[in-house]
Amino acid sequence: MSKPPAEIPEENGVHEARRRLLTWLWRIPVVAALGGAGYGGYEAYRVHFSKRRPNPKPVFQTRSRERVADLSELTESWAAVPFLFADLPAIVLRLPGPIAGGLTHQGAHYAAFSRICTHQHCLVDLSRDPSAIALAFNYRSEVPALVCACHLSVFAPDRGGRAVSGPAVLPLPRVELQQEAGVLYATGIEVS
Ligand code: FES
After folding, report:
1. Are 78 and 154 members of one domain?
2. What's the 10 CA to ligand 1 centre distance in angstroms?
3. Mean per-residue pLDDT over the chain, rounded
């Protein structure tokens, strides 16, 4: 006795469905790889060409005045003192030249920045060793820089806190400074 003729098309249909599935399966890694490459290209473009310049006329939101440091703690260029301002970790530096949003007093230049990295909020630290910055952060600098060890962003204090390398694109917000009787005070935080 022969098989019922209805079973043969059903078997063929299953094979056809499997063939179509296999035809599509090989495309998944190709599409994923293309998507990854496209996203990587977009990120590389964004990170290298979208870094925002610090505002040449920063706008500060006023906060209650807090003591930062004595001027006697900042007697040389690139001397730095970390401090907390309204619970925000920050750092004040003596710079070799003036920057927008900084403070110049008796020929000495000071600036303060938030220490919260604008990429994903790790703490930045001052690195005074340009060769260490080149080695560890893949960025050549003639001067010290604020660096973030989480994903290797580098910020230039002498350029208003601009992100100059790594994934961060926004500059570090500046802290407004005031000088009185040889003491530096923080009085506001930059808002974008
Ligand atoms: S959190 Fe600083 S580089 Fe990512």
Report:
1. yes
2. 58
3. 90
